[in-house]
Design goal:
- The complex is a heterodimer of chains A (about 325) and B (about 325).
- With about 325 residues, chain A is mainly α.
- Chain A has one domain: ABC transporter involved in vitamin B12 uptake, BtuC (Orthogonal Bundle).
- Helices cover about 70% and strands about 0% of the residues of chain A.
- In chain A, helix 2 runs antiparallel to helix 12 (about 280-300).
- Chain A is globular.
- The two termini of chain A are about 25 Å apart.
- Chain B is an alpha/beta fold and about 325 residues long.
- Chain B folds into two domains: about 35-140 and about 275-300, Response regulator (Rossmann fold), CATH 3.40.50; about 140-270, Response regulator (Rossmann fold).
- Chain B contains 13 helices and twelve strands.
- In chain B, the strands form two sheets. Chain B has a six-stranded parallel beta sheet with strand order 2-1-3-4-5-11, with helices on both faces. In chain B, strands 7-6-8-9-10-12 form a six-stranded mixed beta sheet, with helices on both faces.
- In chain B, helix 5 runs parallel beside helix 6 and helix 9 crosses helix 10.
- Chain B is elongated and about 60 Å long.
- The termini of chain B are far apart.
- The chains are: A mainly alpha (about 325), B alpha/beta (about 325).
- The interface of A and B includes residues 41 and 258 of A.
Chain lengths: ~325, ~325
Amino acid sequence: MTAFPTRTLAAGAKVSGAGQKLLAFASLLILVVGFSLASPNFLQTSNIMAILQATSVNGVLAVAATLVIITGGIDLSVGTLMTFCAVICGVVLTWWGMPLPVGILAAILAGAACGLVSGTIIARMKIPPFIATLGMMLMLKGLALIISGTRPIYFNSTPGFTQIAQGSLVGMVIPQLPIPNGVLLLFAVAGFAAWILARTVLGRYTYAIGSNEEAIRLSGVNTDAWKIAVYALAGGICGIAGILIAARLNSAQPALGQGYELDAIAAVVIGGTSLSGGRGTVLGTLIGALIMSVLTNGLRILSVAPEWQTVVTGAIIIVAVYADQLRRRRG
Amino acid sequence: MTRGKESMPTRRLVLGGIPATALLAASPIAMAQEKIYIPLISKGFQHQFWQAVKAGAEKAAAEYKVTISFEGPDNETMVDRQIDMLAAALAKKPTAIGFAALDSQAAIPLLQQAKSARIPVIAFDSGVESDIPVTTAATDNIAAAALAADKMAELIGGAGKVAVLVHDQTSRTGVDRRDGFVNRIKQAHPKIEIVAIEYGAGDHLKSTEITKAILQANPDLKGMFGANEGSAIGVANGAREMNRRLVIIGFDSGAAQKQAIRDGIMAGAITQNPVGIGYETVKAAVAAIKGEKVAPKIDTGFYYYDKSNLTDPRIAAVLYD
């Protein structure tokens, strides 16, 4: 699942993944070992599964955010887009009574369509990504509330829906290892995104746009179209996150979602992706998302006061990015 | 390790009649013998209301010599974050759990897990739509808001226009307080017209702006009901900024709301008994652990207070700053 582009078009699109991933992975390991020593309740199958489950939604959102951030953009709408897609899924499955695959497809397509809109606003209307997606974030939040009638939509009439996140295919084969399906889905999404970045033209242009958009535009590449494609892809991935959170909660919660974009962005930067674009990996993001949920869970297990949990999480984000910068300067 | 524990059904069967504490003490991983630990997973922790619930829980914890922890998500929309907290609490192998569900259904799988591990669950603040919780310690919000409606009718002389500002339209307390107030007005006070029902997320500033807009649109408005602390403060602020006199009835307490009542800007407010909610939750948990009988519902009560009884010891005891 390495996410190196086989060749990069622009000179600046150097991807220094290995060092940062090693650093991030070491931090993750240190956290796990530390918490395990501090509390006997930490390193237990059920708790590890709880951590993985808690990572799944943020992880998928962070993968979507990674794609956009590598282009040098930002997507603040990932959280509320997730909610919007969950609501669409609820409308199709619960209100219209359509079969499960239709609901899943509808959520993903809704996400991709919204991503297409964001991308178009950014590329064609030349609105900065921060503002365009801020606007989308609010619009989608409002639309999710309007469509749902401000009430949660439950999936009780779709048997097996919750299995998408809560069931465990692995657990059916190996009972000792009940990895939730939601986590498999996260790995699948991450693998897919890593493959796009490493092996496809879209991936190469994603890095290239992030490192020097003007240069590749002048070399005759339709950067607008490629940028829109990246936002649409990220949107579709947010649709998957929507299905995931709906299956997790057995409901589409229309008011949820704002604030989730910041957790996703935090996972991306801890994983070594640069906010200035052109550099980053999906594997790094995955580790970043895991660091965040291990940290949150571990501090809870140690009964650290919630106020202090927030302080520690904030500090970790800064330390992680600083450590990455130090390594980069030396190397 | 958990798996190992779970795959000892025969042992659990033998111990079936013995309370959960004994079971925990008997299990090899229990850290200290007979140490009772009760985590409370709340809907929040930042608001003064939740701090008062926490204070009540801590009081009971000290009396019954048990350990508690108190935690909740940053805001009341974060259903999945609360579920993660519940999962972490279960991982700590608690003796009992207190839980104020943001969404009952979302929590069912974990509550089931608690049930199969024989960890008694006490619902607090709002009910959990499930038969798993041993009991629910909560305010009857519909009745409490109906009392606010009666007081409003009394103070505006039984007729005129009023407006309602609610914290949100998805949470149980938001819906219950809105419906409790609106339905009581419709049934018992037909000459009162409700001209607006708005939602301000319990945010002081947002609620202030909404109030000013309502006051602007309705020059003859006689009264407003703010359905939680933030909404009530917003209504008081809005009326103050617009320099308008009207009957304002709030909900819950807090230093700002108490001051507004003392100053005469607010007529009065309904207070729940947050300290009582926390206290009763821990008390019920201890009883459930000991295997004592617990009533299926614990009404933690509510009161109307105004300038006249603000310092009444019975009222003062349940108000918080």
